[in-house]
Amino acid sequence: MLKEGMLIVLSGPSGSGKDTVLAELFKLDLGIVQSVSMTTRKRRENEVDGIDYLFVDESVFLSAIESEKMLEYAKYGNNYYGTPKAPVDNWLADGKIVVLKIEVQGAGNIRKMYPDAVSIFLTPPSLEVLEKRLRGRGSEDDEDVKRRLDIACNELSRICEYDYVVVNDDLMSAVDDIKTIISAEQLKVSRRNNLLSEVNK
Fold this sequence. Notes:
CATH architecture of the domain at 6-35 and 95-199: 3-Layer(aba) Sandwich
Order of helices and strands: EHEEEHEEHEHEHHEHH
Largest sheet: 5 strands, parallel
Number of strands: 9
Low-confidence stretches: none
Structural class: alpha/beta
């Protein structure tokens, strides 16, 4: 049994497969929960408040920033997006494995706040594969693809800041790699203080 929960930071370029990998991880009985981001953008017809996002107006979001209730936040266009702190801390106190899917800059801030966080960078096997995946979506034009590839190059240059790197060439292999990382981290002495106190009685 862990002395407390575990925070996992998952980053990777757009098109690396973060959502797909997480969807498979959540099918496993690992006690994983994913933080729900807060946003000021309007809810889309197929979205559920509290599941897809926590939808709030700008005054609520800015108040949360002012009172230091956000782990991280950013503004894209006219809308704010961010990670509320309280649910994460509550889950960790309950011994849960909490996954934050977060971009590289935000990940650095999280690691400063939670030094025990486990950071994983998910990467495609090559930029060529990444470009193929982005174009295969059919939702981005050439300019968008180029912009995303430029961002990806910057993100890939910061892999060394992470604890682990997982190459998503084969989906289930990537899922197995992350499952192995979680299992290994759970066995670390620093996370087993309660066990050590029992055997040393």
